[in-house]
Every structure is written in structure tokens, then in C-alpha cells.
Amino acid sequence: xxxxxxxxxxxxxxxxxxxxxxxxxxxxxxxxxxxxxxxxxxxxxxxxxxxxxxxxxxxxxxxxxxxxxxxxxxxxxxxxxxxxxxxxxxxxxxxxxxxxxxxxxxxxxxxxxxxxxxxxxxxxxxxxxxxxxxxxxxxxxxxxxxxxxxxxxxxxxxxxxxxxxxxxxxxxxxxxxxxxxxxxxxxxxxxxxxxxxxxxxxxxxxxxxxxxxxxxxxxxxxxxxxxxxxxxxxxxxxxxxxxxxxxxxxxxxxxxxxxxxxxxxxxxxxxxxxxxxxxxxxxxxxxxxxxxxxxxxxxxxxxxxx
Length: 306
Prior knowledge:
There is one protein chain. This protein folds into 2 domains: 8-103, no CATH class; 115-261, 2-Layer Sandwich (Nucleotidyltransferase, domain 5). 44% of the residues lie in helices and 15% in strands. It contains 13 helices and 8 strands. It has helices spanning 10-19, 23-26, 29-33, 52-64, 69-82, 92-99, 131-137, 171-181, 198-206, 227-238, 240-247, 253-266, 275-295; strands spanning 4-7, 115-126, 145-153, 159-166, 186-190, 210-212, 269-270, 300-303. The strands form 2 sheets. Strands 2, 3, 4, 5, 6 and 7 form a 6-stranded mixed sheet that branches. Strands 1-8 form a two-stranded antiparallel sheet. The longest helix has 21 residues, at 275-295. The two termini are 13 Å apart.
């Protein structure tokens, strides 16, 4: 029988869900006050007129409401008119040009204790032929996707780090760069069998963390001492399913849930055509997911029915 849950923080959770659809929540007073750059860059050529905060806000609204560039521009212009805000809105071409070099910092709550980090990747479609043409004529060279690599805090569900690569990049090649960016201590890293590589174990052990990666069913021990050998011994002792429960590996599903949320809310497609813009587009969506989970996360408990 399916378990039932009740919320402890219904009023806060309900308000947070309403904030997700509030335009004034996403276009904050801080963004408006820093909309225009008043100081010159001091470099050759014309200085930027709009701040990075203005460009980021434009991209956030664009992703939130799934709008093309021109429609986003008109949407914000009409919103400023209704709010009696006398500010110009950047042109969609200006946003596209500035976006490729935009630095997107993911909002993450600090913690004093070590994190349990779960990592995984997912493919995101790039513009191209439709499904019908693919079924009729096969996949052409233009049809491709990019890979989004995520490192997520198992306890909070926040995205700690996001990296974007082409589809021919192996997950294990990105693990080191993911873990290097994470601030604070890492107690455990949980990943699927794609990360069952020697360099992945070395990267995790260098961070002083426990590596929980399921080896293949016919896996043999390595000659050198490593966490992988201990995992194999424990699996042989208690079984694979019991080991996953004992080690906390099943919490890796938090990463899959996050990727499902991203594709459900923002779709699994990219509208940008340049790789750098595609990367920034995904980083902005990860930023939005973090803000959403920080403002409206349910605190629930299981209802025991007798």
C-alpha cells in the first residue's frame, strides 16, 4: 500500500509555490536598482550599458515562462510599464551576445558539516529535425544533444555544481572538475556504474570522501588498496541490494529527480544555438531550480495508519 505523507510547513510551502508564479518575486528590487551600469569599463570600445544582473534577469524570465527572445523583451517592457518602472529593456540580440560570457553563480546554502554528494548526467536536445523526419529518414549530423553534469547535495536537493559538455564526453572525465568547485567538506560521493573507473576513485579519495559506486556484477578487485575493493567485499557479504541501502547509494535518486524536475519545468530542449549560450541557458535553469527548492520545499512525515 502506498505511503501517505503530511506536511509540517504547509503555509510556508504554499506561499513558496505561489512565489514561483509571481513576476515581482523574480524581478527583484535588487535587479531593478542595479539594472543600468553607471561606470565605464575603461577598456577600448563602448562600455556595456546594461548590468550582468539585468542580462541574468532577462534570461531567468525567458526560461521560467518558456519565451523566445523577442517575446521576453516585450514581456518585460509591458511589465515595467504596469509597474511604472522607467527603465529600458535590453534587446534580445544584446542579451544573446552578452549571455555567452555571463557568469552564473548557483545559490547554495552553506553548511558546517560534510556533504553527501550525488552525481549524474543527462542529455538535453539541441534544435534540429523533428521526431517525424527522424523516423522517416534517420538521424542526420545536425541532430545532437549536450550533456548536463550535476553534483547535488543529497540532504537539501540543491545543485552544488553544474557542468555542460558535448555528448561524446564520458561522465568520469567531468567528475574531478565537479568536486573541485564544491566548497566545504565532502563525506561521501554516490554515483552510478558509469563512474566505476580508477581515476574516479582516485579523485574521490583525494577529497577525503567515501566512494559509493556499484561495481559490475563480475567485477574483480584491483591490486592497490581502494574503496572499490571494500565495496566488492561488502556486496559479496550481504548482497547488492542490502549494500545499496546500507551505504546510502539509493539516495542517488535525488539526482534523477532533479533532472526530471528540470526537464518537466523547462522542457528537455535548448533554444540557444551557440555552445557557450547553451551552457549559460542550462546554468540559469539550474539557478532557478535552486531558488525554487529554497523557497518552497515540503517538510513532510509519514502517516501511520492502523
